[in-house]
Design a protein that fits this description.
This protein is of the alpha/beta class. It folds into 2 domains: 2-113 and 303-362, 3-Layer(aba) Sandwich (Rossmann fold); 129-264, RecF/RecN/SMC, N-terminal domain (Glutathione S-transferase Yfyf (Class Pi), Chain A, domain 2, Up-down Bundle). The protein is 40% helix and 23% strand. It is built from 10 helices and 15 strands. The protein has helices at 36-48, 123-126, 129-143, 148-169, 178-214, 233-242, 244-250, 271-274, 277-299, 316-328, and strands at 2-11, 14-20, 25-29, 68-76, 79-87, 94-97, 100-102, 114-117, 220-225, 261-266, 269-270, 304-307, 332-336, 351-356, 359-362. Helix 3 crosses helix 5 (178-214), helix 4 (148-169) crosses helix 5 (178-214) and helix 5 crosses helix 9 (277-299). The longest helix is centred in the middle third of the chain and has 37 residues, at 178-214. The chain is globular. Bound molecules: adenosine-5'-triphosphate and magnesium ion.
Length: 366
């Protein structure tokens, strides 16, 4: 499934825009503040009904406007589709797929999956483990939608166990009720760990391949780091039992997959601590590219890649490598202040959008 055209009204800096997206690479260029990231965000918003940039979604409605509307035309081998999103702060969103209202766009097959790289996504490499866990769980859910419930079931069991620990601590409940919850937590925990492990195992070879291809030198590795060593639910129950005193002292569960991490390593050392900024960027890109290929293999359709300002910290060789990879397979939209930063962008197979004076122009050298 590819996106072919985006039309919008009153989104961020745009009063109206209507742009074509290429089946391969589309380059959005313009000076700082022109509205490039806004356009990328609009594509994401049209695909998912959410912003990839802010939790305060009223920000996306153009200053002075009441509501924003976006329409995204898509296409696959079987035909054309259309997604539309209407958003008025304070009201429920109006989402439609092929003309029919839907509650959300998550499971909608009329649109491509999207994968987005914003500069602040480097937090995925640099930030707290919770970000990596939640990203990993999103990949699990994208690869195998039926398994999305595992994480929720685990979180619910964890919340129950924590509530019980607090009650025992306060003398309002007895320890005798713990084992039942431990078994429940362990059952979901083992399933969650198995999903995460399977996902990382699938991503690992592609990750290493992309890292090498993009010029991240040395031995580069993606590794799942579960907190628990348990091989089955009984093992995890035993680990929980060993730590029950410290859990009771703290009032929450200190052990289990809610403490897992995902490590990006180069030459045996964490990219997070020792990598250069460019290396960290390449690590993140390698992960997104690996995910895209696995999704394409599993779901039969590659996600649309949205890459914001990804070239600015890369040298000429690495820009070249990334661009040729992006032109080779899948659909991608990339923003840049300088067209020269995207080598080969003058080729016919690359769609170009120029942002100027608050408008998105196409087919004219601005
Ligand atoms: N809701 C809104 N209504 C109108 N304008 C907005 C709104 N939100 C943001 N803007 C404007 O959008 C502009 C920024 O756009 P954007 O972030 O897309 O720039 P950019 O082209 O990505 O720039 P850079 O190269 O610096 O990343 C700012 O001038 C900002 O004032
Ligand atoms: Mg920007």
């Amino acid at each position: 499934m590819i996106a072919t055209r985006l039309s919008l009204r009153d989104f961020r800096s745009y009063s109206a825009a209507d742009v074509r997206l290429g089946p391969g690479l589309t380059v959005v260029s313009g000076r700082n503040g022109a509205g490039k990231t806004n356009l990328l965000e609009a594509i994401y918003f049209a695909c998912t009904g959410r912003s990839c940039r802010t939790a305060n979604e009223r920000e996306v409605v153009r200053f002075g406007a009441e509501l924003t509307r976006l329409e995204l035309a898509c296409e696959d081998a079987l035909g054309r589709h259309e997604i539309s999103v209407g958003f008025k702060p304070g009201d429920a969103k109006r989402l439609k797929a092929d003309g029919a209202p839907v509650d959300n766009l998550v499971g909608v097959s009329a649109r491509p999956l999207v994968s987005v790289f914003l500069p602040d996504r480097l937090e995925l490499v640099l930030g707290a483990p919770a970000l990596r866990r939640s990203h990993l769980d999103q990949v699990v859910a994208a690869l195998w939608p039926a398994r999305a419930g595992t994480r929720r079931a685990y979180s619910a069991a964890l919340a129950q166990r924590n509530a019980l620990l607090a009650s025992i601590r306060a003398g309002r409940a007895s320890k005798a009720s713990l084992p039942a919850w431990d078994a429940e937590l362990a059952r979901h925990g083992i399933a969650l760990m198995a999903d995460r492990d399977a996902t990382v195992e699938r991503l690992r070879p592609r990750f290493a391949e992309h890292a090498a291809g993009l010029g991240l030198e040395g031995e580069v590795e993606l590794r799942y780091r579960p907190r628990s060593k348990a091989a089955d639910a009984a093992g995890l129950v035993a680990e929980l039992a060993e730590r029950v005193e410290s859990d009771l002292e703290r009032g929450f569960t200190g052990h289990g997959p809610h403490r897992d991490d995902l490590a990006f390593r180069r030459e045996g050392r964490e990219l997070r601590a020792y990598g250069s900024r460019g290396q960290q960027r390449l690590g993140l890109l390698s992960l997104l590219l690996a995910e895209r290929e696995e999704l394409a293999a599993e779901r039969g359709s590659a996600p649309l890649l949205l890459l914001d300002d990804v070239m600015s910290e890369l040298d000429a060789t690495r820009r070249e490598r990334l661009t040729s990879l992006l032109r080779r397979d899948g659909q991608a939209v990339i923003t840049t202040t300088e067209l020269e930063h995207v080598p080969g962008s003058d080729a016919d197979d690359v769609e170009k959008i120029f942002i100027e004076g608050g408008r998105a122009l196409q087919g004219v050298e601005a």
